[in-house]
Amino acid sequence: MNRLGSKSGHLQSVIEIGETDRVFILTGAGISAESGLATFRGAGGLWRNHRIEEVASPQAWRRDPVTVWEFYSQRRRAALAAQPNPGHLALARLEDILGDRLFLCTQNVDDLHERAGSRGAAHMHGELFKSRCDTCDRTPFEDRNTYEPPDGIPHCGCGGWIRPHICWFGEVPFEMDRIARALDECTLFLAVGTSGVVEPAASFAARTRANARTVYIGPEEPTNSYAFAEAYLGKAGELLPGLFHCAGASRRTTG
Ligand code: APR
Question: Do residues 151 and 43 both lie within one domain?
C-alpha cells in the first residue's frame, strides 16, 4: 500500500476525479470522531466495560432490552449534541459536484452526513433516530425519544417491543442491493475512518480492486490494509477538505 499525506494533515497530492469516474465512499465511526462521537474500537471504544458486540445483538435484546435501550438512548443524546465536522461537509460538497456519480455508504447510524447536506446516503447499519417493532412489519418510524429506567420498554400496538432500527451483529445489513450495484460500477473506492474488521463492509475494498482505485483515509492503517492501493494517513476532518480535484470543476471541494 502506497502511503500518502501526513499526520500533520498537509497533503502531498490530491485525488483527481475524471469526468467519467464513479466514486464509492464508505464511511465509518472515524469520520464522526472529530464531531465528538466515540468510535467502537481503540481508545474509548468500550461502553460501561461492554464490547459493542455485547449490547448490539439480538441475543442482548432478548436478554436485557433495558440495557440495550440505555445504550442507544445515550447514543441518541450524544448524536443530537454533535455537529457535522469538515470531513462530513467536504463529502457533501463533493456530492454537489458529482451528483449521482458519487455513492455514499455509511456504517454510521448518526445523521451527521445528512445534516452536512448529503442526500441519499445508504445507511447499511440502520439509523439511530428511527425505531421499529420487533414483532410486526410496521414501517420503521422517526423516533428521537430516549428510553431509560425507571421508564419501561416502549410497546407497539401489536404487543411487540419497539426496538432501535439498527442492524445488530448477526442481522442482515440494509440496502445491500443498491450497495452491490454501486460497488460494481465504481472506478474510485474510498474508505474513511473504518477499522476494516466488520463484515460485509470490510470486504468492499477487495471486491472493487478489479474495477476501482482503492484509497483509505484515517489516522492509522485499517486491518484490511492489503485491499487498498493507497492510504492517506491523518484525520478525516483535516484531509478531506481540499483532497479532491474534479475534472471540469474549477475548484477543490473546499472552495
Ligand atoms: N478521522 C478518520 N478516521 C479516524 C479518526 C479521524 N479523526 N479517528 C479515528 N479514526 C479511525 C480509527 O483509526 C479506526 O480505524 O476510525 C476507525 C474506527 O473504527 P471502528 O471503531 O472499528 O468503527 P467502524 O469501522 O465504523 O466499525 C464498524 O462496527 O460495531 C460496529 O456497527 C458498528 O458500524 C460499526 C461497525
Answer: yes
**Domain span holding position 236:** 1-37+84-125+173-255
Nearest CA to ligand 1 atom 7: 235
Q: Does one domain contain both 113 and 221?
A: yes
Question: For residue 9, is pLDDT > 70?
Answer: no
Tell me the pLDDT band of 7, cut-offs 50, 70 and 90. Answer: very low
The model's pTM is 0.94
- Nearest-CA residue for ligand 1 atom 4 is 30
Distance CA 130, CA 116 (A): 19
CA–centroid distance, 29 to ligand 1, in Å, is: 4
